[in-house]
Amino acid sequence: MTGAPVLALRGVSKRFGAVQALTDVHLEVHAGEVVALVGDNGAGKSTLVKTIAGVHPIDEGSIEWEGTAVSINRPHDAQALGVATVYQDLALCDNLDVVGNLFLGRELKKFGTLDEVAMEKRARELLDTLSIRIPSVRIPIAALSGGQRQVVAIARALVGDPKIVILDEPTAALGVEQTAQVLDLVERLRGRGLGVILISHNMADVKAVADTVAVLRLGRNNGVFEVESTSHEEIISAITGATENAVTRRQARLAEEAK
Amino acid sequence: MTTEQTTTPAADAAPAPAVDPRLLVREAGLAGYLAEFKRKMKSGDLGSVPVVLGLILIGAIFQGITGDFLNADNLTNITKWIAGPGLIAVGIVFVLLLGEIDLSLGSVAGVSAAIAAVLSVRSGMNEWLAILVAIGAAIAIGALHGFFFAKIGVPAFVVTLAGLLAWSGLQMAVLGDKGTVNVINDGVLANLDTYFLGDGDVAFTWGFAVLGIALFGAGQVLDSRRRNAAGLLARPMSEIALRTGVIALIGLVAAYMLNQDRGLPLPLVIFLSVVVITDFVLRRTSYGRQIFAVGGGVEAARRAGINVAWVRISVFMISAGMAALGGLFIASQQGSADKLLGSGNVLMNSIAAAVIGGTSLFGGRGKTWSALLGILVIQSIITGLDLVHVNQAVQYMITGSVLLAAVVLDSVSRKTQKSSGRG
């Protein structure tokens, strides 16, 4: 990855009362790059994402957007910059149809009234370019399966033409087929030149789509790895924070038994 | 990762259609329309069908018993009487769309009618101004309810239950010791109910009906053209012709019946206009979309940047404003504002009307047309039972059963929709 990163966090710290949630965290995301953010529960992944999304303003450090320092204090600031976040609970309105959900909060209008035709057309174009298959763009979200809802939620994040998309555990509740579809979608986002921050606990997913893995441990950076040149075990040991851990012990034992 | 897959839109020369070919694809033409209609019925998406069937049944039964239920003057009276409770029901629809309930609307209707009557009769204020003050007061009351609900977090049920009591107290206080204020003879308030457009000129009725039919048909054709031009699935002309034909039949028969009696009643015109305008606001503006969004998922709406508190407060303002308008029509019809106006089963009838018409009690589903259809059912039953001299005790029980039947239908259709994946 060359050129200035679209988004760069430099020495970001965040505390909640007595808890130091993030300490001196660095993170860079380039255009057309998928950065997997991994770490154990409580490592600070969600907090980090929320500082980028504007939910929690940072206490120390700086955030750079395309090389210039910016401050993100509200979700609105993040959206204005071009950061779109897909949270784990998808936040779709069950009673509205797919088009209604895609454009909720930023409806296309003509003479002050909703331009349903233009919205439906753009919705179909968007879903087509992402190769998303859903039965119809005019059925309520309630009628879609979990995987379909996930892709609609991701597509919804793209309506505002963002440069960075944050996906919070997009495959957590999905089956094999649906997981593959979502991973395909992540690759297509990268193909369109978007920077993707992918939070995941699933190492297979991370290895499958991510270019870079940033590991957080106890609110600090614990290594940034190139996925291609890094083994599964190295990432695991960075997450757990030691080379001496349950995973390595097990492997050592298995190796011993094999002899 | 293959870049040629997505680099340019041109690379996807033939993008796969977003529509899964196995599902929900309609054949073109009338056959497709009928197939879609059947599928909707089976999956529990009943729409207006039960209530229209109910209306026909009610009409047939009472015509059979009394022989003069379908007379022009009786039907005209029904169209006049539905305006008051119907307008309140429109307000109820807005609140129900949020998944909330407003129990105070009867009292709000009463207090508004009292304010308008007292200001115009006792204080000698200009009647139009008095009406505006009354509606303004109701909107302020709605804003107060909305504030307690949206900002303080008190359940709407409790806020408006308190309002039910408090505002009927205010109503008595405004009316004072005498308790009843007769509206000015032939004044604005009196004419709300009694005026017929063009003093009964048949041309107004025909004109109104034809205008409505033409607007409906033209709207459908234009919409279909735009969708065709955009390459989207559009309603075929045969379906538009069928729909417009049905609307035309209803409109022209109604116009003919009204002209057999006294012509086009003002309350009907105002009620229909309010229904059409509010329907437009709900379906075609972003504000309407926001109401549906809040009714369907508060958290999703909030994340989409919708000001949830404002939507809630404004909806309570709208419902109270509608109740005020309804109260004025009720006062006009009975010729006076009194302590009992808006009490008793006015509120229940309005809620029942909204639900019978097909607006869900569970939020996020419904339209203001259901206020019209529902109140037609309720008023037809009440009028019919009056004609056969059934006493009020039985009337209450029958109206209650109809409401229960409507709610059962709502719940069952929700279940069926869930099980066929269309919830």
UniProtKB/TrEMBL annotation, chain A:
Residues 7-243 form the ABC transporter domain. The keyword Oxidoreductase does not apply. SUPFAM superfamilies: P-loop containing nucleoside triphosphate hydrolases (SSF52540). GO terms for molecular function: ATP binding. The keyword Iron-sulfur does not apply. Keywords: ATP-binding, Nucleotide-binding. SMART domains: AAA. InterPro entries: AAA+_ATPase, ABC_carbohydrate_import_ATPase, ABC_transporter-like_ATP-bd, ABC_transporter-like_CS, P-loop_NTPase. PANTHER family: CARBOHYDRATE TRANSPORT ATP-BINDING PROTEIN MG119-RELATED, SUGAR ABC TRANSPORTER ATP-BINDING PROTEIN. This is D-xylose transport system ATP-binding protein. It comes from Kitasatospora paracochleata.
Automatic annotation (TrEMBL), chain B:
InterPro entries: ABC_transp_permease (IPR001851). It comes from the Bacteria. It holds the Pfam family BPD_transp_2. Keywords: Cell inner membrane, Cell membrane, Membrane, Sugar transport, Transmembrane, Transmembrane helix, Transport. The chain crosses the membrane at residues 46-66, 78-98, 105-122, 128-149, 156-175, 195-219, 240-258, 264-282, 309-331, 343-362, 369-388, 394-412. It is a multi-pass membrane protein. It is found in: Cell membrane. Part of the binding-protein-dependent transport system for D-xylose. Probably responsible for the translocation of the substrate across the membrane. PANTHER family: ABC TRANSPORTER PERMEASE PROTEIN YPHD-RELATED-RELATED, XYLOSE TRANSPORT SYSTEM PERMEASE PROTEIN XYLH. This is Xylose transport system permease protein XylH. The lineage of its organism: Bacteria, Bacillati, Actinomycetota, Actinomycetes, Kitasatosporales.
